[in-house]
Design a protein that fits this description.
With 141 residues, this protein is α/β, with parallel strands linked by helices. The longest helix is centred in the N-terminal third of the chain and has 12 residues, at 27-38. The strands form two sheets. The chain has a four-stranded parallel beta sheet, sandwiched between helices. Strands 5-6 form a two-stranded antiparallel ribbon. β1, α1 (27-38) and β2 (45-51) form a beta-alpha-beta unit. It is built from four helices and six strands.
Length: 141
């Protein structure tokens, strides 16, 4: 695990590590999720994709080529979602960690909205949002 030190923290704009675990999700679905992270109004961040031995390495490599901030870690065998997220946490360089599933899409201001930049970041916070989408409309829940 990388030690969080003053060298990798910023009082103004903390580095956020975004962890995505993938297993057998279609690469196109994961690409949409990654694009929604890359389009965030908040910067800086890094993305760690943990391939839980479910996608061919070529597909994962294609995803990693979307941006230099993306790193890939491969599990040699399937260990499950929790183990994949823990692998991402262990490799994180950020002061804060966010999780995205391969079938999620974030609003462009998700990270910025969730961070209280002027506040005390010593505690935890949990947030969730759901949007139901149907033909002809959508509603936030």
């Amino acid at each position: 695990m990388i030690e969080r030190t003053e060298a990798n923290r910023s009082a103004e704009r903390p580095l956020i590590t975004v962890v995505m675990a993938v297993y057998r999700e279609p690469a196109q679905m994961a690409r949409c999720a990654l694009r929604s992270v890359l389009d965030q109004t908040w910067s800086p961040f890094e993305i760690i994709i943990v391939n839980d031995s479910g996608l061919p390495r070529a597909e994962i490599s294609d995803l990693a080529e979307l941006d230099r901030r993306i790193r890939v870690i491969d599990h040699p065998e399937n260990r499950g979602g929790a183990a994949a997220y823990n692998t991402g946490i262990d490799a994180a360089r950020g002061e804060l960690i966010a999780f995205i599933d391969a079938d999620d899409v974030w609003y462009p201001n998700k990270l910025e909205t969730q961070l209280d930049v002027d506040g005390d970041r010593t505690g935890c916070f949990f947030a969730s949002n759901c949007m139901l989408v149907w033909k002809g409309g959508a509603a936030a829940v």
